[in-house]
Amino acid sequence: MNEQEFAELAAGAALDALSPDDQQRYHAALAAHPEWQSIVEADADSVNFLADGAAPVAPTPDIRAALLARIAVTPQNGDAVIADATPAAVPDEGPDAAPAADSWPTPLGGGTAAKAPAHRLRFLFALAACLALLVGVGVGAVAINSYINRPASVVALEDIQSADDAQQASVALENGGTATAHWSASLGKSVLVTDGIPTLAEGETYELWYVRGDTPVPAGVFAAEDGEATAVLAGEMQAGDVIAVTVEQDGGSPSGLPTTDPVVVIPTA
Predict the structure, then answer these.
(1) Which of 21, 22, 55, 116 has its CA 20 to 30 A from that of 71?
(2) pLDDT in tens, 147-186
(3) Is residue 36 within 8 Å of 4, Cβ to Cβ?
(4) Which backbone phi and psi does 193 adopt, to 5 degrees?
């Protein structure tokens, strides 16, 4: 993932609008490139600025007066009319005076005003209000749904990063990628984040291990998509554990012991 791709994900993360898959890619990229933290902070500042909004401004008296004047001369029976561009002349009081009705706004196209049924107007207003409500509810629902449906590995990573004793360590992979372990001894949790790990052949999987002294303890399997993965280790981490990864058959080692040399080894002590 390059910096531009990460910047697009960071903008979505600041708005809490990423899908679970994009959240996983976002956290993996940030773990592999801590120098991109400045992008995250800049996006967060922008969102906070936009959230503050503009200061409310009271309408000027002439706006209110103009609105009331328009209401006073607008029929309240559902007729749709358009006012003349020039003000209506005040009729003279005499035998040649124009009828008072001439001072009303002229209907569109002249002649009798076209009828706009009141129930249709009410329907349009109600529809507009419903659409506005649905847009607001929909945006909130998407954000809430994305938050609730976060992958377990992403939730565990956030818990670890929030812990007072959060630690991490990275190693370079043989193909040039990186693997970063995040852990918290107080929580007993650890998460492995990879960027650029090779894609395995069909029938193979990556298996996680806690290595305690000379004893490997299986901690689950994971697959990488486009070289990226965020995997939480199963079981409770203990102080001094070494986090390792081997390549095993689908479902993990049938014997419960590694069958290949580790491709990732990260000490936590």
Answers:
(1) 55
(2) 455 678 888 899 999 999 999 999 999 888 999 999 999 9
(3) no
(4) -120, 125
